[in-house]
Amino acid sequence: MSDFPRTVQFMGLNEPIRWEGSTPELEIEGEIPAEIQGAFFRAVPDPAHVPFVENDVLLSADGMVSRILIKDGKVSHDCRYVHTARWQAEHEAGRALFGRYRNPFTDDPSVEGVDRTVSNTTPVWHAGKLYLTKEDGRAYRVDPHTLETLGSWDFDGALKSETMTAHVRIDPETKEMFFFGYEADGLASKNIAYCVVDPQGNLVSEQSFDAPYCSMMHDFAISEKYALFPVFPTTSDIDVLKEGGPHWIHHQDWDSWIGVVPRGGSVEDVRWFRGPKGVHVYHIVNAFDEGGKVHIDMCQSDSNAFGFIREDSGITIPQHELGGGLVRWTLDMDGDSEEAEVAVIGPPGDLPRVRDADMGRPYAMAWYGTIDPEGPPPLMGGPVGIAFTALLAFDPARGVVGGYTVPPMHAIHEPVHVPSSQEGHGGWLVATADRMNGPDDYDSELWIFEADAIGKGPIASAKFPERIKPQVHGWWVPLADYEAAKA
Q: From CA 171, how far away is CA 290, in angstroms rounded?
C-alpha cells in the first residue's frame, strides 16, 4: 500500500485492504444470544486503485458490501466490491480515472459522463431488497445472498432525481420508506427531491423544492406528521468546481435552517426555521411531534467535522477543539416565529442509533459513539481522522444512563440494534471493533452488547481471521426477512 498517499485518509484504520472473500465460520468467544439471528450489512469504503490526486479522501473510495451473518450461534463473513459504473471503468482500465472528491471536472476525459457514485455509505433494506447508497448518485441494488451487483436503481424508471440520500427513514407502522436527494437536478444546485416508497417498494411520490442554498444534506428525519430537511452552511459552487476546486466550502457566518414539510402533503407548504450560524450536523438521532411542536435531536458540531473540508474552507479549528453536543431543535408549528429553539441535551458524539420501532416517535433510548476524554487515546481512522473510544446510552428524560469505554489501543464503530421478543428486554447492540497490535497491524472483532447494560462490555464476540475495514454505516436484517428475500 506504499503507493497510496501518506495522509490520514489512507493510514491507520483507513489503510486500504481491498479484501474480497468469504469466511464461513468465525471463532466465537462467549455465547451469542439465541434471539440474535440475522444479517449485519455494512457499507465499506476501500479504494480499488491508487488515486491520481494527492488530496484524495476516504469518501471517494470504492464501495464494498460486507455481510456478517449470525445464525444458530455461528457467524460468517462475506465481502465484495459494489460493481458501480465507476468501479467497472477503472477495473477495465486497471487504474484510477476519477479525480477530486465529487468534482467531475477533474476526471480523466475517458470517463466523461460516467456515473461517479461509489455506493460506499449505507446499505439500505426495504421490501426485501438491498441497496448500497451514497448521496452523490442513485443507489445500486445488490443481491443480498450472492452480493452480486444488480445495477443502478431508479425504481423501475420512476425516479427523476439524480441523487438519493444515504439516510432513508422507514416508518415502523406504515412500512413506507422516505428519502430525499439534494443537488437533485445537478451539481451545486439548490434542488431537493422528496420521495415516498410504499411497503412493496414502489416509488409513489416525488416532489421537488429549493433549499435556501446548496448544502451538504447528509441526513434528514421524519416525525408522524412531518418530514424535516436540515440545511447547514457547507456549500458548493459550480464555478469553483469548473476550476478544479473542492466540492464543499464551509461558511462559519451563514445561518443554518430546517425545512419542515407535511409528511403526506405538498412541498409548496414547506416552512423554514433558522438555527445557529456556522454549525453543522452529519447525523440525526430522531424527530417526533409534541402537540403543535416538532422536536429534532441531532449530533451537532460548531463547524464541519471533516478536517479536509475545514482545510479547504480556510478554517483552522483543530479536531480536538471542535465543540458541539447532542442538541434538540424545537420548531413551533403553531407559532409565527421562524427561529428554532436550540438546547444542548447530551455530550458530543455521532453515529446515533434508536430502535427501528421508535423512528419518528418519542424514544426512550439512543446509543451513539464518542471520545472518552478520560479514556485511551483514539486510533487513527474514519472520515474525521479519529475513531470512537466509547459508546454511550442516552435517555432523553435522564441524559446519559450508561457507557462503555474500550480498552487501550481499541476502536469501536457504529452499532446496529437487534430487538428482542422478550417483554421488557431492550435487545442488543452489534458492532465491529479493532485492536491495534503495532504499526499497521490490527485485529478485528464483532462485539455484542446488552442494549440496556452496555457498561458490562461485550457479552460475546467473534474474531475475524483477516483484518476488516470499518464501515461508514450498517443495517440489521432479521434472519426471516433475509432468507425470504428474492433477488
A: 17
Consult the annotation and say whether 425 binds a ligand: no
Sheet bearing 399-405, strands edge to edge? 350-354, 366-370, 390-395, 399-405
Grid coordinates belonging to 445: 472483532
SS3 101: coil
What does the pLDDT read at residue 487? 55
Task: Return all residues near 380 (Cβ < 8 A) that are at least 6 apart.
Answer: 8, 11, 12, 13, 14, 386, 387
Q: Which residues, given as ranges, of the chain have pLDDT below 70?
A: 1, 487
Ligand-binding annotation for 250, yes or no, is no
- Determine whether the annotation assigns residue 473 to a binding site: yes
Distance CA 427, CA 417 (A): 7
How many C-beta atoms lie closer than 10 Å to residue 208's C-beta?
16
251 marked as binding residue:
no
Strand partners, 354: 366
Residue 265 has what pLDDT? 96
Instruction: Please give the distance of CA 388 from its chain centroid, rounded to a whole number.
Output: 15
Q: Which CATH architecture has domain 8-484?
A: 7 Propeller (2.130)
H or E element in which residue 242 lies = helix 238-242
157's CB contacts (< 8 A; 6+ apart) are: none
Residue ranges per domain, the chain? 8-484
Supply the pLDDT for residue 1: 56
Beta carbons of 387 and 351 less than 8 angstroms apart: no
* Residue 140 cell numbers, joined: 445500486
